[in-house]
């Protein structure tokens, strides 16, 4: 029973593995998989007494799934393999002496699961889930660099989110333009099951018609955590001034670059701020950001009515077509997460031209909310319903600051969370602020640690742990070749590794 | 400035087909130089070549290949290096390999046992324990210097170890080097993964490949050096024939690389070795069986290729290892060793060409050329 459960466990994994067929336990029992093993074992057992001279080559090759080159070296190869098996048997016999059946290793079931390779990337463990799709870890097979991949089910996105597919396309377009160390980098995209990516248009209906769900893979930088998660693990549920300042500076750097390209992120929140291994902040998720640049190729350019040509020079860099289109219901800036929504977007009689002129201030507001959350641990505007939150944002009630915030921080937060868009601080003013420039004391005890589990499992050199989640998929791909190695790692080396691991533990303890 | 150099012949093409390496004669002083010409038009990312130029200009060490000059000629960057007579260790390895395959063909035809013995002898002579020692020592000195400047080389491999006519060993290829000092701060660890390093991924240390929070430091160069020594001593790369993903797996959890000699075949560890070495063939086994490394050398290599970088030795410790002290201190290959290598190479090349036993007249012809080492060694040797 246990075996069957194990087998099932590896099958019902996730809907991504559609290629592998569902197999009932009966199928597994009937498959030549088991029978072969028994046969194999018998063969070996009997041949052992004959000094293992004749092992039928064909069977062996099948069983071990070796792709042997058909050259003259085969004989020698077989000699060595025989000896290895001999060695293995001895070990097996020591463990379970009489049984004819080979001990079933879980590795054999893992083997059944095909490693998934998209383009040149090997797909690994799930990292996170979002409204647009999953994010998985992956490995570039050419240069072995670690990446993350966002898998977007276009069919589902088209059904669930209005303008979903367009947003995805727009995100890719924007990401291709970016090159900054605080913005997430796009390496490549891959589209499966829909039209070739060249003539893709924004018509989701075309994608839906296909049998297989069309999927879009976006390969990006690998990050270990987000500020949101970091905040949860922090000892005081908030970051220290030092840490908040460290990340905030990087956030401002990234935003400034983004605004210099006339792109408005529009969705700044701790969940969209990722942290890489080297503690660099990366802004991600450009799905609802707006490109206001002169050359943005949004579709609302088509019905143009250029009226205010004389005003153009005032909106340096902003596409005049966007301004001309105001009031036609094609406003480029979309609604973002409610808690981070800025007041002017909630206004009923919204002055679109004013907002477009001061579009960077939208990001300043959400950055202010983010900073508030980072330093205090709470959101400035909270409520039971969306309506309550929006009312609170729109009202004129001054924002409460907790006691522990110092004077400079309060000034900065007040400046960023000014409801009047004209009086709200610009990024330049933020840069000039005391709290931004000041060097904050480093308090180690109150620092939010980067994810500890990854650190521990990878720090120790234990063979089973350090091959952890990420590399499990590779084990599969190499399992054919590794089978032999796996079973034949001799006592010496394992013990050596183990002693090393214990040493590592000791040193870790002493360091702590 | 390019007028001053007369290109003699092309040595090789490297890195994305846009860099060509030539031997050139300077028209001003009639000396040989190596000229590396990079065409900027075909170059997708100039970062590597720019990094190489700027890094090399900031450092100066006896064992690091100096950049004599660099300038832009139309759309090309020209880098002038001193003339490297023997090329890189990779070239020597290739020559051995070519000889080996040529010889094995011959062997199949004639089945001459004598020939095999001689071939093995030749190969052992080229990169034996004694001749590797000064190479390793020179590279260690160079690395020690770089590490004292907080620079990580990241690309220590046979391609980047050059031997010139007098047996002096240079470390080159600073294109992937990175400094621990960033923005005025000295970092303890780095996390940046050299993703453009494609071809040399086999030499990267496990902690670089892991790309986790721990990062890597200067000790990752030591691991690369260990792999390089293994390749020089074994004649083939420890992970030859492996898929890159499997190589990664092996480096992280699997098989410990090391020197392959007689002792590895007699114990149970043979199994590991045989199963990993995918390009297994009886000749390699036979060759390994003849080989025997000293305990000190084996220990030295083992110290280099420890998987956990916490326990790996650093440059300074390795320079004082008994293997380094065994012979008298020398920063370059001795006359004897260089003559062995050169003669070996000449013989190898000739044998590849002719597939006949060496002819006395042929040899004398080679000797009479002005650049032939066997004549010039004595004049170059100031010991």
UniProtKB/TrEMBL annotation, chain A:
Enzyme class: transferase
Positions bound to ATP: 160
Name under which the protein is recorded: non-specific serine/threonine protein kinase
Keyword annotations: ATP-binding, Kinase, Magnesium, Manganese, Metal-binding, Nucleotide-binding, Serine/threonine-protein kinase, Transferase
Naturally occurring in which organism (per UniProt): Brachionus calyciflorus
Domain Protein kinase: 121-443
Keyword Protein biosynthesis included in the entry's annotation: no
Domain of life: Eukaryota
Region annotation (Disordered) ranges: 1-32
Cofactor: Mn(2+); Mg(2+)
Alphabetical list of Pfam families matching this protein: Pkinase
Similarity comment text for this entry: Belongs to the protein kinase superfamily. CAMK Ser/Thr protein kinase family. LKB1 subfamily.
Alphabetized InterPro entries for the sequence: Kinase-like_dom_sf, Prot_kinase_dom, Protein_kinase_ATP_BS, Ser/Thr_kinase_AS
Record's compositionally biased regions (Acidic residues): 11-20
GO molecular function: ATP binding; metal ion binding; protein serine/threonine kinase activity
Gene Ontology terms describing biological process: intracellular signal transduction
GO CC, alphabetical: cytoplasm
Reactions performed catalytically: L-seryl-[protein] + ATP = O-phospho-L-seryl-[protein] + ADP + H(+); L-threonyl-[protein] + ATP = O-phospho-L-threonyl-[protein] + ADP + H(+)
Entry EC no(s): 2.7.11.1
From TrEMBL, chain B:
GO BP, sorted A to Z: protein export from nucleus
Cleavable signal peptide: none
GO cellular component: serine/threonine protein kinase complex
InterPro entries per record: Kinase-like_dom_sf, Prot_kinase_dom, STRAD_A/B-like
Gene Ontology MF terms: ATP binding; protein kinase activity; protein serine/threonine kinase activator activity
Sequence ranges assigned to domain Protein kinase in this UniProt record: 18-324
PANTHER family: SERINE/THREONINE-PROTEIN KINASE FRAY2 (PTHR48014), SERINE_THREONINE-PROTEIN KINASE FRAY2 (PTHR48014:SF21)
Record family assignment: Belongs to the protein kinase superfamily. STE Ser/Thr protein kinase family. STE20 subfamily.
Protein name in the entry: Protein kinase domain-containing protein
